Amino acid sequence: MSGRRVRDIVCDVVAQVAPNEVVLVDGLLALDDAAVVRRLSGRGRRDPLGFGVTEVAALVTAVVWLVLDQVAATLVGAAVERAGRRSGAWLRRLSRRPPPPAVLPPLDRAQLAEVHQRVVEAATRRGLTAERAAELADAVVAASVLAEPASGPPEEGEEADEPAGGEPR
Hints:
This protein is an all-alpha fold. The protein has 7 helices and 2 strands.
């Protein structure tokens, strides 16, 4: 499945809309996506971020990451993914591999509108003004649409892109 990693979209949006939070995002990038979501949502901790920030009122990072993670999980099929995650988690523990990052697949217009609405709602719940929430949602949608797909080794059965003329890069 092609798409863009949630963490890459978060980095782009935060750099554009809330550059003061880039240090926070940089710290979160050392964690796997599941750990980031747990920390940003505050599940199981008094200090949701784990490094001195006890009040996550209007963090753009939290709004964007949590909404996009939820959308990615919904689109991929959360029930199937969870079942696979349970057995996959056991295998990863044996091999010590971290879980793969969440990927947001290409979205159609209706899905983009839903993402926009979810970001606006989450941002206003966290205390952002309606104008700032709309600005944030616009940036998320733009980053989702204009982004390059997640890069990595070609999937099995796929060939790596070669420039015109067949010359290797």
